[in-house]
Amino acid sequence: MLFFVTASLFVCLTVLAVMLPFVRRATQREQQPGEHRKRLFADQLEQIEDDLAQGVIDASTYESARAEVGRRLIAISNEIGDKTTRDESKRRVVAALAIVLPVIMLGGFGYLFFGSPNMPDMPLDARLAAEKPDLPILIAKVERHLAEVPEDGRGWELIAPIYFREGAFEKAEIAYSRAIAILGADADRLTGAGEALVAGASGVVTDQALDLFDRALALPGDHFRASFYKALASEQSGAHDRALSLFEAMKPLPPPSDRWSALLDQHIRLNEAAAQPAGTSELPGTTP
């Protein structure tokens, strides 16, 4: 209901903003004819003064003419406005109401019938406690929890890949680093932190990221992603022979997904072409 009252207030303010130009314009037009006639009579008074100074009229004629024009000037000054102008002003106001009132009635009564004005506001706590909160709500829930319990390493580990998928690479790297500091360094956390640094550097494997990948590779197990980025660092530095050797050594490793497998094949072909000595390639259609 609070929303309905607030919305109604804004609608009323909008109506006033729409009506004001109509009313102001009508008032201005109402004043224009009277002002024009007042200026006309004022000019006539000045002309009479000039005629007397030039000797065109005598003193008696001057007094008579000046009295008549003065009388008319006083009369027009006391007029409120003629009926035609007032009618036009009323028509403008009626036209404005005809435009605005249907909007108010359709919007207001439509909301009463089709909206939910009696539904209470749902506080943030209730939205966070929903069975299936959307991603922004989930992030807000975890962030609030971590603000209250910053030593929850599992919470940092949970939110780090979410930050990464949302493109918040700096936040992802911080979250991985906090998880590493609290829970210890394992291959997934080290690789995740390195990937966040690479993504934040527009795909460039920085020295800091390479150090994280080397630390992950020093741990037991097969680490496809860390191996890939280590080989990519050699490729980016121009050491295509070494990059090709590292990429080919990854073939026995199980890729995390088909996308990673396709990336591996792509970079193997790229480094094979780059590492091939100049002048040894065969031109199409030629024989040795």
**Largest sheet report:** none
What is the string of SSEs from the N terminus onward?
HHHHHHHHHHHH
Query: What's the CATH architecture name of the largest domain?
Result: Alpha Horseshoe
Count every helix, treating DSSP H or I runs of 4 or more residues as helices: 12
Percent in helix? over 70%
CATH superfamily of the largest domain: Tetratricopeptide repeat domain
Task: Write down the CATH class of the largest domain.
Answer: Mainly Alpha
- N-end to C-end Cα span: 86 Å
User: What is the general shape?
Assistant: elongated
* Uncertain segments: 26-32, 278-288
Give the total of beta strands.
0
**Oligomeric state of the chains?**
single chain
Give Rg in angstroms: 42 Å
Give a description of the structure:
With about 290 residues, the chain is mainly alpha-helical. It has helices at about 1-55, 60-80, 85-115, 125-130, 135-150, 155-165, 170-185, 185-200, 205-215, 225-235, 240-250, 260-275. It has twelve helices and no strands. The longest helix has about 55 residues, at about 1-55. Helix 7 (about 170-185) packs antiparallel against helix 8. The chain folds into two domains: about 1-115, no CATH class; about 125-275, Serine Threonine Protein Phosphatase 5, Tetratricopeptide repeat. Residues about 25-30 and about 280-288 have low confidence and may be disordered.
Question: What key phrases describe this protein's structure?
Answer:
288 residues, mainly alpha, Serine Threonine Protein Phosphatase 5, Tetratricopeptide repeat, 12 helices, 0% strand, disordered C terminus
